[in-house]
Design a protein that fits this description.
Number of helices: 17
Radius of gyration: 25 Å
Shape: globular
Structural class: alpha+beta
Distance between the termini: 32 Å
Largest sheet: 10 strands, mixed
Oligomer: single chain
Strand content: 15-25%
Order of helices and strands: HHHHHHEEEHEHEHEEEEEHHHHEEHHHH
Number of strands: 12
Helix content: 40-55%
Length: about 475
């Protein structure tokens, strides 16, 4: 990790790592106990390296350069790291990590944004606490944990994550965490809408959102009355043509479990292979009328039904839901490239703490990579070789230390230009840093990293954070 000094400079200029260490609710009594900075720094280096096991942490013990740049005296062992998470009080540890997660993205909430909610499954292979058999489409019958995740749409930033038992994948288990998260966000910075899959299209969630005066966009399961609505509107005129063969139709629906009528948007697309059904078979109309259109050569359609409180036109609502697919890419990256699929212990408390810690480091790294390439998101499998991997050699002469970084990447010229841009930005920021508070420095870094989405807007510190700093 020869290029890590650039990331460490970013952590120091943004006042990210030192406050994390200072506010950590981990306390030792013995004089021989490890230092907090060594423990948290070891976690940081391990997560950045893409490790998935605590035992992998021992491979970093020979690093005498990056550890010292973080203020560490050594990299701790994997046993020490596990015991530290066990020692932390769970409530205090979660509150501590949530506050730093919030600090990492809070200035961005002043701009219009969408909150995505989803659940991913983490299969387990030992005897772990809360390892229960639940919904697991890829490995049915395998005990698992569920990761209930809340994220900022399109920016790939994690708001919070909760680890629960494998059979607790329904929205009823995610909803308390969602409302708690929204209660911690000031009213003027709350999302423009909440977006989720068909598990969220139930009356309890939508009623709660309406009482909080929050818009939502969910998908509906194709239950009996939903299929009946499709049947009623299948041959009606007024379907709007969207793109790539998709059509949309706005209507209203009130299910038997709903307290009120709500707006729904029917979306359909013709299946490429036409299906012709003989009229004298069991598959003939009217049972299949919701899928077959006899007026157009019995062409088959696939349907989706969205429920929303938005007043936008149908094409905008459909596009909003299509954009939700990006959160699946975030799950794929964090589980397979960042460690959500690993760092397993027998107790569930360390799993809940390390999941948030990985999310925090993931947010930091994502924003750092945006400084180098603001127009594109790089997954860790691409960004680590670009901006992290390299050979670093430290030499000392006449009391002056020099760090020489050699990149063996095929795009070494591009990497050098990116690192020079980052260094130039921090040099300019450093000239003004003495007059700025930590949150003001962080806002300037976020403004530079997210300039593609902000379109030149400079972020301002939230009043509640600005007063604290």
């Amino acid at each position: 990790m020869g290029q890590l000094p650039f990331f460490i400079q970013y952590l120091k200029m943004g006042h990210l790592f030192e406050p994390l260490v200072d506010e950590c609710p981990l306390h030792y009594v013995s004089n021989n106990s490890p230092k907090k900075v060594n423990i948290l720094g070891s976690f940081l280096l391990s997560i950045l390296s893409g490790h998935t096991r605590y035992a992998h942490m021992t491979s970093l013990m020979s690093d005498n350069v990056n550890a010292k740049l973080l203020g560490m005296t050594k990299v701790v062992s994997d046993d020490c790291a596990r015991r530290a998470l066990q020692r932390l009080d769970e409530a205090a540890g979660i509150c501590w990590l949530q506050s730093h997660l919030y600090y990492s993205y809070s200035p961005l909430l002043s701009q219009p944004w969408i909150l995505d909610v989803d659940v991913t499954v983490k299969p387990l292979y030992g005897k772990q606490e809360d390892a229960v058999i639940g919904y697991n489409p890829h490995k049915p019958g395998r005990p698992s944990h569920t990761y209930h995740t809340y994220m900022i749409a399109n920016l790939r930033l994690i708001l919070d994550v909760e680890v629960q038992a494998g059979n607790q994948s329904a929205s009823s288990y995610s909803a308390p965490g969602l409302w708690s998260l929204l209660d911690r966000i000031p009213q003027e910075h709350r999302p423009a809408l909440i977006r989720g899959d068909c598990d969220w299209g139930n009356d309890a969630v939508m009623t709660e959102a309406e009482q909080r005066d929050m818009d939502y966009l969910f998908k509906l399961r194709q239950s009996k009355y939903v299929k009946k609505l499709i049947l009623q509107n299948h041959c009606k005129p007024g379907w709007e043509r969207l793109y790539e063969g998709w059509e949309a139709f706005s209507s209203e629906l009130k299910l038997s479990t709903w307290k009120r009528t709500r707006r729904v948007v029917l979306v359909r697309r013709r299946i490429q292979n036409d299906i012709v059904v003989a009229p004298d078979t069991n598959k003939a109309l009217p049972q299949q009328l919701s899928l077959i259109e006899p007026a157009e050569n019995m062409a088959a359609y696939e349907y989706s039904v969205l429920v929303t409180s938005l007043d936008n036109e149908a094409i905008t609502i459909v596009q909003h839901y299509r954009d939700r697919a990006d959160c699946e890419n975030s799950f794929d990256e964090i589980k397979n490239q960042w460690g959500w699929g690993g760092f397993v212990t027998q107790k569930v408390k360390p799993c809940r703490l390390i999941a948030r810690m990985i999310a925090l480091v993931y947010n930091w790294w994502t924003l750092f990579v945006r400084l180098a390439e603001p127009d594109k998101h790089f997954d860790a499998i691409t960004s680590r070789p670009l901006l992290l991997h390299g050979v670093g050699k430290q030499t000392t002469h006449a009391g002056q230390k020099t760090l020489t970084i050699t990149s063996t990447h095929g795009r070494a010229a591009y990497i050098r230009q990116a690192c020079e841009r980052i260094s130039d930005f921090f040099d300019r920021l450093k000239t003004n840093a003495p007059q700025l508070t930590p949150i003001q420095c962080w806002c300037l870094i976020l403004s530079e990293a997210m300039k593609k989405y902000l379109h030149g807007v400079l972020l301002r510190p939230p009043n509640y954070l600005n007063s604290e700093n």
